[in-house]
Amino acid sequence: MISKILIFAFLCANFICYAQSIDLKKVDYRKADSIAINFPKRKYKTAIELVAPLTESFTTEHEKFRVLFRWITENIEYNKSAANAADADKVVRKNKAVCQGFSNLLKEMCNSANIDCDVVVGYTKTDVKDINRKLKKTDHAWNIVTLNGQKYLVDVTWATSKYNMVTRKFQKDFDEHYFLTPPEKFILDHLPENKKDQLIDKPISKKKFSSTPLLYADYFHLGIESISPNKGAFKLKKSKPFTFTFTSANTFSSAHILLDAEKYIAPVELKNNSFSITFEKKET
């Protein structure tokens, strides 16, 4: 029988879950966030008219980029009805977009602030059916931004909203993970069409990307690493218990794991600095 790892939703105990932290010379983004969140909400006609008043209080590229990024996440809604509104000015006027519109808007605002920012197109995995899918047509867009000579990966669309598996809708909720994400983390759920845009020393193939497990936000926020088996689809032997292992700096009391859309709840055991979940497929 072929089983697919769909999502890992862990129950945490005795610790605080932090989002991915990036040490960028200890940049303090509180002022940038405050300005972006409290910026006057009114009808704007163009993207460029926003840039100067948003960035005038800052001298560093990191803070200027942050305030533009956060303004977008606060003011633009992900809405499939705006699929044809990819123009940056139209996105600002309508206050809604899909990934191409989000990415184009970030690029135009950054370029107006003399920050180098490009749009990247590629592939993602958002549903179990995407595991081992042949990647033929790109389905997402994000950005590469250059700050102080260093290239970074960002996804302003995914930073704006989180996908709710129950309602199957996107909910407005800022996700820090997709702001200046380390390339080795970004590649776990984003594969650019152009290999050089992976920003890693050894780019992975479409086949490799497609075959890995489907990961959702909690995987990153809970600091999970080194999962095994590290395959999206695998054979589950009825005669033997199945053991899933992972490492994390956090502590877990129990976990839920979905295989073939069935939820299994099992205690988590710590052994040799790794956590393990073991269960046995019952005969029917």
Describe this structure in words.
With 284 residues, the chain is an alpha+beta fold. The protein folds into 2 domains: 1-17 and 222-284, no CATH class; 22-207, Roll (C8orf32 fold). It is built from 9 helices and 16 strands. The strands form 5 sheets. It has a 4-stranded antiparallel beta sheet with strand order 11-1-13-14, with no helix packed on it. A 4-stranded antiparallel beta sheet has the order 6-5-4-9. Strands 10-12-16-15 form a 4-stranded antiparallel beta sheet. The longest helix is centred in the first third of the chain and has 15 residues, at 61-75.
Relevant terms:
alpha+beta; C8orf32 fold; four-stranded antiparallel beta sheet; 16 strands; 26% helix
In brief:
The protein has 284 residues and is of the alpha+beta class. The chain contains 9 helices and 16 strands.
Number of helices: 9
Name of the CATH first level of the largest domain: Alpha Beta
**Total number of strands:** 16
Radius of gyration over all CA atoms, rounded: 20 Å
Which bin fits the share of residues in helices?
25-40%
How far the N terminus sits from the C terminus, by CA atoms, comes to 14 Å
What percent strand? 25-35%
Q: Mean pLDDT score, rounded?
A: 84
CATH topology grouping of the largest domain:
C8orf32 fold
Q: Give the overall shape.
A: elongated
Structural class: alpha+beta
Largest sheet: 4 strands, antiparallel
Lateral arrangement of strands in the main beta sheet = 11-1-13-14
Instruction: Give me the CATH architecture of the largest domain, please.
Output: Roll
As residue ranges, the low-confidence spans are 1-22
